Amino acid sequence: MAMEMRLPVxxxxxxxxxxRETKKHLVVPGDTITTDTGFMRGHGTYMGEEKLIASVAGSxxxxxxxxxxKALKTRYNGEVGDIVVGRITExxxxxxxxxxxxxxxxxxxxxxxxxxxxFSDGAVSLHTRxxxxxxxxxxxxxxxxxxxxxxxxxxxxxxxxxxxxxxxNNGFIWIYPTPEHKExxxxxxxxxxxxxxxxxxxxxxxxxxxxxxxxxxxxxxYDTSILYCYEASLPHQIKDILxxxxxxxxxMETRQRLLEQEG
Amino acid sequence: MASVALSEAEKVYIxxxxxxxxxxxxxxxxxxxxxxxxxxxxxxxxxxxRVKLGHTDIxxxxxxxxxxxxxxxxxxxxLEFFVDCSANATPxxxxxxxxxxxxxxANTLYRIFNNKSSIDLKSLCIxxxxxxxVLYVDVLLLECGGNLFDAISIxxxxxxxxxxxxxxxxxxxxxxxxxxELSDDPYDCIRLSVENVPCIVTLCKIGCRHVVDATLQxxxxxxxxxxxxxxxxxxxxxVRKVGKGSLDPESIFEMMETSKRVGKVLHTSLxxxxxxxxxxxxxRQKVGFLG
Lengths: 263, 291
Description:
The complex is a heterodimer.
Chain A: E1 5-6, H1 14-18, E2 26-27, E3 32-34, E4 40-41, E5 45-48, E6 51-54, E7 58-63, E8 66-71, E9 83-87, H2 95-101, E10 110-118, E11 124-127, E12 134-135, E13 140-143, E14 156-158, E15 163-167, E16 172-177, H3 198-216, H4 223-233, H5 244-262
Parallel strand pairs in A: 4-8
Antiparallel strand pairs in A: 2-7, 3-6, 5-6, 7-8, 9-10, 10-11, 10-12, 13-16, 14-15, 15-16
Helix pairs in contact in A: 3-4, 4-5
Chain B: H1 8-19, E1 35-39, E2 47-53, E3 56-67, E4 78-85, H2 99-112, E5 125-127, E6 131-143, H3 148-162, E7 164-166, E8 168-172, E9 178-182, E10 189-191, E11 199-206, E12 209-212, H4 216-221, E13 224-230, E14 236-242, H5 249-279
Parallel strand pairs in B: 4-6
Antiparallel strand pairs in B: 1-2, 2-3, 3-6, 5-6, 7-10, 8-9, 11-12, 11-13, 13-14
C-alpha cells in the first residue's frame, strides 16, 4: 500500500516557469485597459467615460485594432455547433415522457449532444440528431474549465493509445474504451455494461491523470497535447502522475514537444 | 455527505475497476491520495493545522482556555469538538444544510477520544476540582472531495501536536486561597503527547472489495462503509458503520485487518512529516492559503 504525506510547497508563477519575456497584461473587472479611443471593443470590454474598461478578469488580447479580454475562468457560453457532454439533472414530468423516454434516459445519465440554438438568457437547446451523439456508456468523466478546451474541427477523438475521448466545449471531458465495432444498431442509447479489460482501464486511468495534470498547469486541451502528455507519462506509474514534481516534469516535456512541432 | 450524481454505466465501471485493483485514478485499493499537512497556520490559536487530501481541505484550530473540570473527572481537563461545514465546500452546506454532517463528525470525534489513553487528560489539570485546561478543537471543512473523516482525524492529530499550552503555576498563600500565575516567557509552554491519538481509516465497500480513501464518485458507488479509529500501535479504539447497505461479518473482519495495517503506515508518515516540519524551526517558509 502506498501512503505519501508531504509539506506544502508554494506555487511557482507560471511566467517564471515558462521563461516568457513579455508579461501578460492582466486585468480585473473595472480596470482601465486604454484611454485611446481608436480601438474597437471586443468580448469582455465595455466603453465608459472615454476609456475602455474590462468587464471580466483575464488577459488583454490585441489583434490590430480589436481589443478583447480573454477570461481565465468562465462559465460555459454556448455557441451553435458546439459539442457538449452533459448530465441529466431534471426532466419534464408528463405522462408521455414517462412512457417513452424513461426506458432510454434516466436522471444522472451522461449524453453527448450538439448545440442547436442559444437563447438570449444564455440557455442552450441541444440535439442528438446523429448516431455519433447519444447516451454515454462506461468511462470516466473529467470536469475542467471550459476556457481550457481548444476549439477544433472535431471533438471526438480515437487516440492511438487505445481509448477514445470526447472534448466537450463545456469543459466536460469523457474518456471511454474505443468500441470494437463501429456499427451501433441501437443508435447509442443502450449502454454496454460488460467489464472493460484491464489494459483498456490502464490507458483510461493514465489519460485521466494526464488531463488532470495538463489542467492543473493551465495548458490548452486538444488531441495532440493529450497524446504528447500520455507519451511523456509512460515511464511513470499511473498513480505517480498526480504527484506535483512528476506532473511538472511531464507537462514541461509536453510543452517542449508542442513548441518543437509548431516551430 | 456531499454526493455526486453518477450514471449506471459509470458506477459499473468503477465497481469493476475496484475488483481488478485499478481505480479510476490508477490507485490500488489500499493507496491514499497525496496528503499535504501544514501546522501553525492560524496565528491566534494555541495550535492549528491544515490538511489537503486530494480535493478535501480541512482546517483545525485548537484553543486552550481555563475552565472548571467535569464533576465525574475532577482531576482531568477535557476536549470539546465543534465541526463547521462551510458553504464553501459544496452548495449543499448552505444555511443549515451542513449542520447534520457537522454534528455527526463531532460525535464521532468525541467517541474516538473517549478513552483513557488517547490524550493524557491529567496533564491538563491545574487545580483539582477548580481549574483545568479545556481544549476547544474547531474543525472547518473548506472543500469536500471525499474521505472527510480520515482527513479530519489527521488534521486534529496534527493540530494537537502543534498545540502550545501556557505553563501555569499555582501559588498558595497563608489563608489557603490559590492564585494562578502565568509564566512571563510567552514561549514557556507545555506540549501534549499525541502518540496515542487515533486516526480514522474509512473503508468503503464497493462490490466485493473495500477501498481506502474513496473519492466522491467512489463513495456514491458504495452502500456501506466502516469507520475504524486506529492508534499508531495498531490498536482499534472505535468502529462505526455508516451507510444503508449491510456488511458480512467476514468482510468486517477483513476490513478491520486492512485498517490496522493502513493505520500504522498512516501514523508513521504523519509522525515523520510533523517532525520534519518542526526540525525546520521557526524560520520555515509558511505557505498558508495564498502560497
